[in-house]
Specification:
Layout lengths: L2 H4 L8 H17 L3 H12 L4 H4 L1 H13 L3 H8 L1 H21 L3 H15 L2 H12 L5 H29 L4 H4 L1 H15 L13 H20 L9 H23 L13 H31 L4 H26 L4 H19 L8 H26 L8 H40 L11 H6 L5 H32 L1 H5 L6 H11 L1
Helix pairs in contact: 2-9, 2-10, 2-12, 3-10, 5-8, 5-13, 6-7, 6-19, 7-8, 7-12, 9-10, 9-19, 10-16, 10-18, 13-14, 13-19, 15-16, 15-18, 15-19, 15-21, 16-18, 17-18, 17-21, 19-21
């Protein structure tokens, strides 16, 4: 039987049901990457934990998921993709419920780590399944459905988490996974067929150990760096050394050992290799912008948590619209053109954000958020199609695991980099603005400024310092938006490295005719 026949819709029964279940599993995992963040202060108070201790609920999940992502291909080959899928969905659902019942800090950190272990394979397995059950000519639409779960989950997480925490309890941010998990498990168990290669490759324990060390150290460095004063802390220096050593040993092992954890031939695919860099950049953009806007609106603009959640929601609507439209067009025209359009739209929204002030009106913010989400949808869906278009089917599970790993690292680095830049820029601008603040500055001698910010009076000094800090922070956010704009524009040259597969080029020609 030919490959085309094997992937024909006629020989994949119940494909629509499998698609729904796969999307639910994807949404369940990606939602948990951000939905817990809003509930952290409430979890901290409920479990009597310190701010430093409660962050381990996030760190444990991220590190565990990062370590368990690379060997997914081997595990799927060993026990079968369906078995691994069911095991992961069931484990993720159970550990989610355990997180909701946790009574101590130790319990929730342990359960979150286990949740990360089970959740690591959900996104890669979902993507691999979608690529296998849909033929080449329908993958654009298939990836648009799958992308909704990947992109919309992190965007809607803070909004949904805020409402569940405010009107129910923080425990419901975990309990919400129960109906999703049951639906995904039942559908996959009944309708999904099990497939596994005839020969199971030998597991590369050395590669797994050194890559796990590198990824875990990197995640700990990024997660703990801000609270530990970065490289002013011995702990962070140790993480940095272990991270560098781990990646160095992994690269050496990858090129010298036979049967490595990641097949070396996977990087020979030009589209896939360029796609890895692009998905990393997309990861930086997806979460960093929403992570910046939440405190921007609450701290500087003085908006409530509920209002902030509503103002951030349109970004998810824009993403869904972009994903659906791009999915339709990806089957008819060159995916590189669609991605270029998406990058330009995102870049324009970021350029506009560099001119923002905290009194930005809700309408302008909503329009910008919708456009930015639309651009992300136009980049993400065609990228999934094009990156895997020429990759051998036997490498798809490893490829989707790598894609997931690079995307998650991009998420972590994006949040950490913008956080560091914001802090450094705020301190610098505070010093610059503060240098002009003195009793001889005529701007401070007007009636309103004199009574509010009189530097001679103790209360005036405090009020003046608060305003200087506020203005410096606004400039710091502008610098962050400029940084993200540069990251976005750097994606455009990478599109030139990718090549449209023959079927895609032919489809584009037909549309143009």
């Amino acid at each position: 039987m030919s490959m085309a026949a094997a992937q024909s819709p006629a020989v994949v029964p119940h494909r629509s049901i499998i698609t729904v279940c796969v999307m639910v599993a994807t949404l369940m995992q990606t939602l948990d990457t951000t939905i817990v963040n809003v509930a952290l202060p409430y979890i901290q108070g409920s479990l009597a934990a310190s701010p430093d201790q409660i962050t381990w609920t996030l760190t444990a999940y991220i590190v565990a998921a990062a370590i368990m992502t690379p060997p997914i291909g081997w595990v799927a080959a060993r026990i079968g993709r369906k078995n691994l899928f069911l095991f992961s969905v069931a484990g993720f659902t159970v550990t989610s419920m355990l997180c909701g019942t946790a009574q101590t800090l130790t319990e929730i950190v342990l359960y979150r780590a286990l949740q990360g272990v089970f959740g690591a394979s959900l996104v890669p397995l979902s993507q691999t399944t979608m690529l296998d059950i849909y033929p080449v000519e329908l993958r654009g639409r298939a990836m648009s459905v799958w992308t909704m779960g990947v992109v919309v989950g992190p965007v809607l997480g803070p909004t949904l988490g805020g409402y569940l925490t405010a009107y129910e309890s923080w425990r419901y941010v975990f309990y919400i996974n129960l109906p999703l998990g049951i639906l995904a498990f039942a559908g996959l168990w009944i309708f999904m067929k099990d497939e596994r290669p005839p020969v199971t490759p030998k597991f590369d324990w050395t590669g797994f150990a050194v890559l796990g060390l590198a990824v875990a150290s990197l995640q700990l460095l990024l997660d703990r760096g801000e609270t530990k004063d970065w490289f002013g802390s011995t702990e962070i220096i140790v993480y940095a050394v272990l991270c560098g050593l781990g990646f160095y040993l992994f690269i050496v092992h990858l090129f010298t050992a036979q049967g490595g954890l990641i097949p070396l031939r996977i990087f020979r695919d030009r589209n896939f290799a360029a796609g890895l860099v692009l998905i990393f950049a997309v990861g930086v953009l997806i979460l960093a912008t929403s992570a910046l806007l939440a405190p921007y609106l609450q701290t500087l603009a003085g908006r409530s948590v509920e209002d902030t959640g509503l103002l951030l929601a349109p970004r998810g609507l824009g993403t869904m619209a972009g994903v659906m439209i791009a999915g339709r067009l990806a089957d008819r025209m060159d995916s590189r053109i669609l991605m270029a359009i998406g990058v330009v739209v995102i870049a324009e929204t970021l350029r506009e954000m560099t001119h923002w002030t905290p009194d930005i009106d809700a309408w302008s913010l909503a329009i910008n958020s919708i456009a930015q989400g639309f651009g992300l949808g136009f980049v993400f869906t065609p990228l999934q199609v094009l990156a895997f278009a020429t990759l051998a089917p036997s490498l798809r599970t490893d490829g989707t695991a790598l894609f997931s790993l690079l995307r998650n690292i991009g998420l972590a680095i994006g949040v950490s980099a913008t956080s560091v830049l914001l802090t450094e820029a705020t301190q610098y601008e505070h010093a610059v603005i503060g240098a002009a603040v003195n009793p001889f500055n005529r701007s401070l001698q007007t009636a309103g400024a004199y009574f509010t910010w009189n530097p001679v009076l103790p209360g005036g000094v405090a009020a003046l310092n608060a305003e200087v800090t506020r203005q410096a922070t606004i400039i710091g956010y502008v610098d962050d938006f400029k940084f993200l704009l540069v990251v976005c524009l750097l994606m455009l040259p990478l599109l030139l490295l990718m090549r449209a597969p023959k079927h895609e080029a032919d489809s584009a020609a037909v549309v143009m005719d």
